[in-house]
Amino acid sequence: MNFMSEEESASLVSHEMAFAAAREAMIAAAGDAVIFPAVIAHGSSPTNRISIKSASTPDFTGLKVGSFWPGNPERGLPRHNSAILLFDQDVGRVEWVIEGGKVNAYRTAAADAVTADALARPDASVLTIFGVGNQALFECVAIARIRPIEQVLVVARDAAKGTAFANALAAEGLAARCVDAREGCERADIVVTATPSRAPLFDAHWIRPGTHVASMGSDAAGKQELPPALFDRAALFCDLPSQAVVMGDLQHFGGDRSAIVAIGDVLLGRRPGRVSPDQITLFDSSGIALQDLTIARRLVAARG
User: Are 249 and 226 in contact (CB under 8 A)?
Assistant: First the structure.
């Protein structure tokens, strides 16, 4: 068995690598891959959460174990951790164990970037981000790589954290300022939510025509970032429909579920993406194991 530490995987990963891996994963999800139901568990304390996601293709198989320990910052440790297991398909042994906490942040942001590249207007220049946690910075940088982002509007519950985050964006070369939720929605070309919310973060009518909206934080039953009324105004996309309606924001969608389109089908040309400049597009990302497995294989290749 081979092992790659958190430090080594973090030194190898890049936004370019993650984007290519996420795109491959979305296409595979719409093809001959098998994605198994996610297992959501918790530690001895129910607030400490564990998720297990697995998948198989004709070429590779494996799983990702993710954890969220909210008390870790008090110990000087990150809340999120991740480990990816790649299996030797001939004999069933674990061939690689890859620690990937930082890799997971790149991979999650890359899924958003791949979808924004397919669905957001080409001239989208104002990005609004809800949330200022670990994932938010990766989201903004990844989207700025594929769209001409001139300004990032930051919506944060804590003003001091919002200001600190805006400064962090400035260090990445992105002009940013803090706004309230309504202004953030009404001025945005792209809205990304990256929070642990269990209630809608904004009103549906604040989203203007032509906006691309991505929910990145809803990855468990009971979570919710988007107002259900927005579903009636938008074209609906996700990474995996069967999973999104169980643990993504689309679990709160009460309409015809056949209207939900896997983004892989758009990338393959089977289904249309954005069909007009005024259309609202909505992407629900609950995260699939294929994203972890494809980036893990690229990490192994980069290691040489």
Answer: yes
DSSP E strand boundaries for the chain: 2-4, 34-35, 39-42, 49-56, 61-68, 80-87, 94-99, 126-130, 151-155, 176-178, 190-193, 212-215, 234-238, 261-262, 280-284
Give the Cα separation of 238 and 261 in Å (integer): 6
Model confidence, pTM: 0.95
Q: Which domains, and CATH codes, for the chain?
A: 2-103+290-303 (3.30.1780.10), 109-288 (3.40.50.720)
Give the separation between CA 136 and CA 177, rounded to whole angstroms.
14
In tens, the pLDDT along 231-290 reads 999 999 999 999 999 999 999 999 999 999 999 999 999 999 999 999 999 999 999 999
Which residues are registered as beta bridge partners of 255? Answer: none
CB 168 within 8 A of CB 139: no
Which residues carry out catalysis?
Answer: 64
